[in-house]
C-alpha cells in the first residue's frame, strides 16, 4: 500500500502548482472574461487538458490520478478554472470514447487546446437528479435529428462553442441519445443565469428550437445516452471524485489563510490561535480534509487499475463538498467581521462551494448509490428501484 | 404556546399580520439595497414599533422584553433588513436612563418617529472580541469632549445620523476607562466608508473615523468609566435579538420548504416522501424550536429581573448556527433553484451568516457560557 504519488505524478503536481501559483492565483479572476479565457488557453497549451485523450489529437496517456492532481492544484488558485478543466475533459473524453471519427476530427484537438470551449447541457427544469425525466426530443429526420427542448443550468454555457447534450429518441432510459451540439447552429438561444456563486462558470439556459444535428455528431448509439452520461459524463464517477478534489483544493487554501491569520491576530494579549476553542477547529478541518483527499485519490487509483469504484466516487461526491463547506465557513468566521466582506476571498469561496454541494446530484441520491453498492437493492426504496439498474 | 401570556400572543398575532401586510411586497428587492428603506422605517414608526421601551418614563407604550422579542421575530420573518433598526431602537431605550435630560429629550422622540437613525460602535480594527481593548480616546476639554479614533464593522454606520460609541476617557484604566458617547455623524472630523458584504447589505456596515470630533458633555451617556458595564448589559438583550433575527430567516425558509417538498416530485414521488428529505426538515425544526426557546427564556429572565448573561450567550451562538444550517440544507433541497440569484433562500443564507458574527463570535459566547457555569477561577484562559 503506497500512499505516495509516483515520481511522474509528483513532477506533474509540481508543474501544475507552479503554474497555478504564478499565473492564476495572483490574478484573482472570478468572471469568465478575456483574461480567464487566456489562462485556459495557456493550460491547453501546457497539456493540462490532454490527460487520457488520444495522442493523435494532442492527448497524453498519463493517468486518472494526474487528472485529480490537476483539478486539486488549479482549484487552490481558482475554482472556476478547475471546474472548467473537469467539464472540458468530460466533453472531450466522451467524444473520444464514443464519438464518430468525423466528430473527433472536427472537435477533439480544439477541446484539448482549449481553443474550443465545451459544456454539458444535460439537466432540465424538471430533470435534475432524476435525469431520466428529461423531455428534450430528438426527432429523426433522414440522417439527422431535429432537437426541441430546454437545458438548464449549463456550466460554461454562455461561453461554450459546443455542448454535449442529451435528448430523447424514445421513451425510458433506452430512449436517450447523447450528441454533440455545436452552439452556433440555428435554433439555439442562450440566456445567462445569475447564481449566488460560481459565476466564473458562466452558466446558461439553452432553448433548442428545431436544431438540426447531423448523425455524425451522435455520441454513442441511439439509446446509449444514459450509458455515456453515466460513464464519461456528469453522472459518472470521475465527475464526483473531481468535484471532491476541487472543493478540497479551495478548502485547503481557505484553511491555510485562516491558520496564518490566527497566528497573527492578537486578542486578550495573545494570538488567537493559542485558544483551543479556535485551534481545535483547525485540527478538525485538517483531519477531515486529509481523510477526504485520500478517499478521492484512492478512487482515482482504483480507476487507474481498472477496479470498480462507484461507491468511493459517490462518497467523494457527497462528503468532500460538505467537508470543504465547513472548512471554508469556519475560515470566514475566524477572520471575524472582515471575513464577511469582499475584502477577503472567503465569502466568494463559500458561495462557490455551495454550488458544488449540488453539482453531482443531491447527497441523498449519492447515499442511495453507496448503499446500493454496499448492501444491494435491499437498501433502495421501492419507488426508486427502477432507476437503479444503471449502477 | 404555554410560554406566552394571552396579551403577548395577541400582540404577536397583530405584529405578524402587520408584517405580512406591510412588508411582503418588495421584500426581496429591499434585501438587495445598501440601506434600510425609509418607507420601512416610517411604517415601523407609525405602528409605534420604534418606541419599544420597557418603562413608562420614556415611552407611552411600554413593553416587556418577551414582547419586544416577538416583534423582532415577526418583523424579521418578512423584512430582515428591519433588524438593525429594531435592534438600535431597543438600545436607545435601553440606555435612556443613563442619558442627560438634554440628550434624551432630543433623541427619544426623533428616534421613535423614525427620524433619527442611530448605530452602535465598539469594535475597532485591532479589537473586536477583545471588547475592552479599545483605543479610541475621548479627552475632556471644558464643556466638551474631543474624540479621536476609528471604529469598524458598524452595522447601520453608512445610513446613521448619529452613533452611540465607546471611547477611553482614561486610557490607562482598562475596562474602567471606557465611557459611552452619543456622536452626531455630521460633526466635523467624522469620516465613513462602507464594507461590501456577503449579505445583510441594508445594514450598510461601515468604518467610522473620528478626527478630533467635538461633542458636548451632555452627549456623554452615563458617567466616565461606566461605559463598559453598561454596554455589556445591553448586549445581554441585543445578542438574543440577533439570534432571533437569524431564527426568523430560518423559520420563513422552513415554512416555504414544507410546501416545496410536497409539490416537487422526483422519481415519481413528492420529495417529502423520502426520509432523507423529511428527516432533515424534522431535525432542523427541532433545533430551531430549541434555539427559539433559549431566546425567549433569556428575555423572560430579563423581564423577571434575573441575570441572564449565560442564556443570552447561548442564544447568540446557538440560534444563528441552527438557522444557517437549516437554510443551507433547504437551499440544497432546491437544487439549482436555490442557487439562483432570484432565490430568496440564498439571500437568507447569506444574511443569516452575518448573525454568527454580529454582537460577538461563537467563541466569545462559549467563553461566557463556560465562565458563567464554572466561575471566574475555573473559567477559560484569558
Description of the molecule:
The complex is a heterodimer of chains A (391) and B (382). By secondary structure, chain A is α+β, with helices and mostly antiparallel strands. Helix content of chain A is 49%, strand content 14%. Chain A has a four-stranded mixed beta sheet with strand order 1-4-5-8. In chain A, helix 3 runs parallel beside helix 7 (237-264). The radius of gyration of chain A is 21 Å and the shape is globular. In chain A, 56% of the residues are buried. Chain B contains twelve helices and ten strands. In chain B, the strands form three sheets. Chain B has a four-stranded mixed beta sheet. A four-stranded antiparallel beta sheet of chain B has the order 2-3-7-6, with no helix packed on it. Chain B is globular, with a radius of gyration of 21 Å. The two termini of chain B are 41 Å apart. The mean pLDDT of chain B is 95. Chains A and B meet through strand 9, helix 9, helix 10 and helix 11 of A and helix 9, helix 10, helix 11 and helix 12 of B.
Q: Which short descriptors sum up this protein?
A:
heterodimer; A: 391 residues; alpha+beta; four-stranded mixed sheet; four-stranded antiparallel sheet; 11 helices; 10 strands; 49% helix; B: 382 residues; 12 helices; 51% helix
Amino acid at each position: 500500500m503506497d500512499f505516495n504519488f509516483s515520481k511522474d505524478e509528483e513532477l506533474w503536481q509540481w508543474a501544475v502548482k507552479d503554474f497555478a501559483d504564478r499565473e492564476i492565483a495572483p490574478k484573482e479572476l472570478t468572471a469568465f472574461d478575456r483574461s480567464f479565457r487566456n489562462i485556459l488557453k495557456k493550460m491547453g497549451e501546457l497539456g493540462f487538458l490532454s490527460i487520457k485523450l488520444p495522442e493523435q489529437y494532442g492527448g497524453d496517456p498519463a493517468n486518472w490520478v494526474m487528472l485529480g492532481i490537476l483539478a486539486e492544484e488549479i482549484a487552490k488558485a481558482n475554482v472556476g478554472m478547475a471546474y472548467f478543466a473537469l467539464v472540458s475533459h468530460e466533453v472531450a473524453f466522451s467524444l473520444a470514447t464514443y464519438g464518430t471519427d468525423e466528430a473527433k476530427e472536427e472537435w477533439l484537438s480544439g477541446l484539448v487546446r482549449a481553443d474550443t470551449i465545451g459544456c454539458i447541457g444535460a439537466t432540465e427544469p424538471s430533470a435534475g437528479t432524476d435525469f431520466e425525466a428529461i423531455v428534450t426530443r430528438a426527432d429523426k429526420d433522414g440522417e439527422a435529428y431535429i432537437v426541441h427542448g430546454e437545458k438548464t443550468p449549463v456550466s460554461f454555457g454562455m461561453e461554450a462553442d459546443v455542448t454535449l447534450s442529451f435528448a430523447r429518441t424514445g421513451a425510458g432510459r433506452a430512449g436517450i441519445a447523447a450528441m454533440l451540439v455545436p452552439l452556433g447552429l440555428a435554433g439555439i438561444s442562450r440566456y445567462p443565469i445569475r447564481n449566488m456563486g460560481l459565476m466564473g462558470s458562466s452558466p446558461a439556459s439553452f432553448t433548442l428550437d428545431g436544431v438540426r444535428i447531423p448523425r455524425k455528431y451522435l455520441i454513442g448509439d441511439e439509446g446509449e445516452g444514459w450509458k455515456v452520461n453515466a460513464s464519461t459524463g456528469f453522472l459518472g464517477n470521475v465527475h464526483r471524485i473531481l468535484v471532491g478534489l476541487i472543493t478540497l483544493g479551495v478548502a485547503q487554501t481557505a484553511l491555510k489563510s485562516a491558520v496564518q491569520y490566527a497566528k497573527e491576530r492578537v486578542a486578550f494579549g495573545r494570538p488567537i490561535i493559542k485558544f483551543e476553542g479556535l485551534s481545535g477547529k483547525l485540527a478538525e478541518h485538517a483531519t477531515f480534509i486529509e481523510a477526504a483527499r485520500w478517499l478521492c485519490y484512492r478512487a482515482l487509483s482504483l480507476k487507474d487499475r481498472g477496479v470498480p469504484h462507484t461507491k468511493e466516487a459517490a462518497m467523494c461526491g457527497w462528503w468532500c463538498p460538505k467537508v470543504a463547506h465547513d472548512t471554508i465557513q469556519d475560515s470566514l468566521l475566524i477572520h471575524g467581521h472582515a471575513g464577511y466582506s469582499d475584502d477577503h476571498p472567503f465569502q466568494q469561496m463559500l458561495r462557490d462551494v455551495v454550488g458544488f454541494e449540488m453539482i453531482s446530484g443531491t447527497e441523498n441520491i449519492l447515499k442511495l448509490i453507496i448503499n446500493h453498492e454496499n448492501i444491494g437493492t435491499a437498501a433502495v426504496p421501492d419507488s426508486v428501484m427502477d432507476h437503479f439498474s444503471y449502477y | 404556546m404555554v410560554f406566552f401570556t394571552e396579551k403577548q400572543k395577541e400582540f404577536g398575532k397583530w405584529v405578524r399580520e402587520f408584517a405580512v401586510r406591510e412588508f411582503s411586497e418588495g421584500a426581496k428587492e429591499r434585501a438587495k439595497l445598501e440601506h434600510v428603506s425609509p418607507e420601512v422605517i416610517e411604517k415601523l414608526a407609525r405602528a409605534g414599533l420604534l418606541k419599544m421601551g420597557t418603562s413608562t418614563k420614556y415611552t407611552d407604550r411600554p413593553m416587556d422584553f418577551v414582547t419586544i422579542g416577538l416583534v423582532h421575530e415577526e418583523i424579521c420573518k418578512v423584512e430582515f433588513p428591519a433588524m438593525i433598526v429594531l435592534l438600535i431602537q431597543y438600545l436607545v431605550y435601553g440606555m435612556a436612563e443613563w442619558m442627560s435630560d438634554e440628550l434624551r429629550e432630543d433623541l427619544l422622540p426623533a428616534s421613535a418617529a423614525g427620524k433619527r437613525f442611530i448605530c452602535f460602535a465598539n469594535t475597532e480594527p485591532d479589537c473586536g472580541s477583545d471588547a475592552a481593548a479599545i483605543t479610541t480616546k475621548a479627552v475632556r476639554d471644558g464643556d466638551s469632549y474631543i474624540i479621536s479614533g476609528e471604529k469598524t464593522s458598524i452595522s447601520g454606520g453608512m445610513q446613521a445620523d448619529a452613533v452611540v460609541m465607546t471611547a477611553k476617557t482614561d486610557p490607562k484604566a482598562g475596562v474602567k476607562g471606557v465611557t459611552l458617547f452619543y456622536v452626531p455623524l455630521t460633526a466635523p472630523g467624522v469620516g465613513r466608508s462602507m464594507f461590501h458584504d456577503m449579505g445583510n447589505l441594508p445594514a450598510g456596515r461601515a468604518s467610522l473615523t473620528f478626527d478630533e470630533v467635538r461633542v458636548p458633555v451632555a452627549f456623554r451617556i452615563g458617567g466616565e468609566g461606566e461605559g463598559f458595564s453598561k454596554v455589556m448589559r445591553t448586549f445581554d438583550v441585543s445578542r438574543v435579538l440577533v439570534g432571533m433575527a437569524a431564527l426568523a430567516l430560518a423559520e420563513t425558509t422552513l415554512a416555504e420548504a414544507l410546501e416545496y417538498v410536497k409539490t416537487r416530485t422526483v422519481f415519481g414521488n413528492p420529495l417529502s416522501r423520502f426520509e432523507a428529505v423529511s428527516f432533515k426538515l424534522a431535525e432542523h425544526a427541532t433545533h430551531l424550536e430549541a434555539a427559539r426557546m433559549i431566546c425567549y427564556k433569556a428575555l423572560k429572565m430579563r423581564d423577571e429581573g434575573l441575570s441572564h448573561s449565560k442564556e443570552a450567550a447561548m442564544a447568540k451562538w446557538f440560534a444563528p448556527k441552527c438557522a444557517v444550517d437549516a437554510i443551507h440544507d433547504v437551499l440544497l433541497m432546491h437544487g439549482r433553484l436555490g442557487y439562483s440569484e432570484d432565490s430568496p433562500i440564498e439571500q437568507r443564507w447569506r444574511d443569516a451568516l452575518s448573525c454568527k458574527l454580529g454582537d460577538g463570535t461563537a467563541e466569545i459566547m462559549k467563553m461566557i457560557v463556560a465562565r458563567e457555569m464554572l466561575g471566574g477561577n475555573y473559567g477559560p484562559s484569558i
